[in-house]
Write a structure and sequence with these properties.
The protein contains 9 helices and 4 strands, in the order H-E-E-H-E-H-H-H-H-H-E-H-H. By secondary structure, it is mostly helical.
């Protein structure tokens, strides 16, 4: 699964779990019985980055979300046939305009030019780095330097990729600028934006602390990744 600009919301994406959301944690929603069956049938594993999670009494979703194309107006099929299971980070890559947690800001990540990595690869980097920091793993130093370099250089290259002069943003292609760029596009440009943005990825940088801490304890794939470092 790739970064899908056609699916990005300019405003915070309407949360399908609004009635059951935990007000202390924007991503801690409570699946109903049918949702839980779907999450369990997929092994609580993200279809984008591959991270596996597990439910708990405190976090029954395991910080996984059910993704469906926002423009689809028909009712969701009972068998979830047109749905994907995404971790909250990968879900954010599909809706970067969605506010993360309660800070009401859009500086939770940045847009980078990185054709060599898939969107799932990028999110997995952020997850492993977060878990490495949580466990004081020595790999956190090297991973941290790599992610910082990717954030700085990748965001600058992303500006050039979408033909935005660098002097308009010394921070590169930030999320607010990316959303503003999409909103100001002509209809002709919008029709071709999938091609224009095909080498761009969303790099989550902060505001996912609760999720990273949870996965560090409940994700076998994260623990395995750290043991290889």
């Amino acid at each position: 699964m790739h970064f899908l600009p056609d699916n990005l919301a300019f405003e915070p994406y309407r949360d399908p779990h609004t009635n059951d959301v935990d007000v202390t944690d924007d991503f801690n929603w409570h699946p109903n019985d049918e949702d839980t069956k779907f999450l369990a049938s997929r092994g609580y594993r993200c279809d984008c980055c591959g991270i596996d999670s597990a439910p708990s009494d405190a976090v029954p979703s395991g910080y996984m979300e059910i993704f469906r194309e926002p423009h689809v107006e028909t009712p969701r099929p009972a068998d979830f046939s047109d749905c994907k299971l995404l971790c909250v980070m990968c879900m954010q890559s599909q809706h970067v305009g969605r506010i993360v947690r309660d800070n009401r800001r859009l500086d939770h990540g940045t847009i980078v030019y990185c054709p060599a990595f898939s969107q799932g690869d990028i999110c997995n980097l952020a997850q492993v780095l977060g878990a490495a920091k949580e466990f004081d793993n020595p790999a956190a130093v090297g991973l941290g330097k790599f992610v910082s370099a990717l954030a700085d250089e990748g965001a600058r290259l992303a500006l050039a990729e979408v033909l935005v002069p660098e002097d308009l943003s010394h921070e590169g292609l930030t999320v607010p600028m990316f959303l503003k760029l999409q909103k100001s596009m002509s209809p002709k440009c919008k029709s071709g934006r999938s091609k224009l943005f095909r080498n761009l990825r969303y790099l989550p940088l902060k505001d996912f602390g609760k999720q990273l801490q949870y996965w560090a304890e409940h994700s076998g794939s994260i623990k395995s990744a750290l043991s290889d470092k």
